[in-house]
Amino acid sequence: MLTEELCRKLLETRALDVIACSLDANSSQTYQAIRQGKGAVFENVTANIERLVAMRNAMGLDRPKVQINSVLMKINQHELRELLRRWEPIVDHITVLPVHAYGGVGKLSFLEKAGISQRGKGKCPLLSYMLVAFADGTAGACCGDSNGVLRVGDFSTQSMKEIWNGPQLDYIRRVHAKRDFEKLPVCRDCDLTFSPLYWAGCYMYTMYRRMRG
Ligand code: SF4
Q1: DSSP tally for the chain: helices H, then strands E
Q2: Which segment of 15-19, 64-68, 76-80, 104-108 scores lowest on mean pLDDT?
């Protein structure tokens, strides 16, 4: 969906700090095994990211920073080193997270085995700075909501400002402000508001994996 025209429009807003692109693989085969939705074509996605960076640079802008987000899993860990080698010279940041259960998309067995109740009760920070664009052009509130439960608009018919200030996102924020998570099961069952210790462990694990190559 990150067409040349959309890239130009995004860049011309001069309003974005970061565009983060989800890319969990360094080959078409692995990418397709992970991302099975319509529009999820490895070659298109990688070409779009490269074009976005090239257009930003050609316009002499230093923002938005372009970031790649990768979730490390058994299925893609053999490609991590190549992914880093390929993208480090191109993008501004690469974030590698261990597999997680944002969005309540599943229970992580290692947390369950440790007897840890991973469900947090805090207000989610993502709602104050993030909008997600799905491959079909619809907008979401949360990058971990891979099932698209928290859809809040449609980029093909609405401006970013309309979506950001729109009723769907406002409703989600108000539910979080009241900690009324029974109204949003996807957030009730999410790990993001888990304790800082958990996240420290995740990041240490990621760094450890990276150091080991
Ligand atoms: S609490 Fe809700 S909005 Fe925040 S990461 Fe979890 S699912 Fe997403």
Answers
A1: 9, 6
A2: 104-108
The Cα–Cα gap between 117 and 141 comes to 24
Q: Give the pLDDT confidence of 135-177 residue by residue, as tens digits.
A: 788 999 998 887 889 999 999 899 989 999 999 999 999 998 8
Which atom of ligand 1 is least distant from the CA of 120? 1
Distance from the alpha carbon of residue 58 to the mean position of ligand 1, in angstroms:
35
Report the pLDDT averaged over residues 38-42: 80
Asked if residue 59 lies in contact with residue 117, where contact means CB atoms within 8 angstroms, the answer is no
Give backbone dihedrals phi and psi of 72, rounded to 5 degrees, phi first: -85, 125
- Which residue from 76, 62, 74 is spatially nearest to 22, judged by alpha carbons? 76
CA distance 189 to 195: 14
DSSP, collapsed to helix, strand or coil, labels residue 200 as: helix
Give the pLDDT confidence score for residue 59 in this predicted structure: 96
pLDDT at residue 29 is higher than 80: yes
Decide: 207 and 133 in contact? Cβ < 8 Å: no
Q: Ligand 1 center to residue 170 CA distance, Å?
A: 14
Q: State the average pLDDT for the chain.
A: 83
Phi/psi of residue 109, each to 5°? -65, -35
Helices (H), 35-157: 42-58, 80-87, 109-113
- Strands 18-22 and 65-72 turn out to be parallel
